[in-house]
Amino acid sequence: MQAIKTAVIGCGTISKVYLENIRTLFADRIDLFACADIDSARAEAYAETWNIPRAISADEVYADPAIDLVLNLTVPAAHGPVNARAVAAGKHLFCEKPFALSATQGRRILKRAAQRGVTVGCAPDTFLGTGIQTCRRLLDEGVIGRPTGAAAFFTCPGHEGWHPAPEFYYRPGGGPMLDMGPYYLTALVALLGPIASVSGMSDRAYSERGFHAGPQAGGRFPVTIDTHVSGSVRFRSGTVATVMMSFDIEVAELPRIEIYGTEGTLSLPDPNAFGGPIRLYRDGNWSEIAPDAGFADNARGLGLYEMAAAIAAGRPPLASGALGQHILEALLAFETSARSGRHMRLKSRVERPAALKLNQETV
After folding, report:
1. What is the pLDDT of residues 107-143, one digit of tens each?
2. 119 burial class (0-12, 13-18, 19+ CB within 10 angstroms)?
3. 228-235/240-246 β-pairing
């Protein structure tokens, strides 16, 4: 398979691990041909650091017929506009999460992609790691019987302790649900199937926060969105999950994800990682489950790599734009439900993504 000529738009914090993995793990399918950033000097520095042939503007990326695929690693507020322009230009697209900031915008992007005949993928791709994939196999084998319920929890005191420019986490497009919810809900959809409806409530602990890292340390910035979100998700299978995502909790002793069945309980690893401990409760005892073969270390970009194979084979990718859109609608439904007090039914339809196969046509 010939490597697909790829341009990266957005040379910020998240781009480093993508570029490292493309260079060390995925270079046989992904040809890093160009990079672009709103800060042209940063793009030029990245091109030199990562040996990328061209540092150009985003407009030049869209106009260049040699570029076949755009890897969108911009901040969330730019995801929708960059995605829309990429597919309008006839480029295949892989986007960091969330897919867009409105469900309508996301649907328009997918419709335009279909018209242009291009393939769209979306992070997170962590569900393709051996942690969630092993759990998927266990569920399919019926080790806990019929899944009857699930719980998903992410808690932290916020990102300002480590991120040098954390403001976007506390503005529209940020918040714990849009930031961390994609990992948890995507894992649950990969395990339990598509979501039918959502009910949520939310609040915020602080009206402003402080910079603790980087050049602005000691300063303050406003919080304009809710930072603690909880609620329930009903899957089309009938399973109901309790979900809580929070930037307002200093410490907690909650599981990441648990799935409860008629014959046992499955405790999952962190869905923001590719591997991790898997525990099974059955017949009165907890036991550790050895993971299947696969990607256990930080392999961000795996979804892009699998998508390159999907493009060559003429099939949808596993970390697809349709899946990203479905997750986006669920994330936004929490906000709408919290604001309106209504139970929200999702409009999008998506199939449960197939299991990852480790072979030449996939990975």
Report:
1. 999 999 999 999 999 999 999 999 999 999 999 999 9
2. buried
3. antiparallel
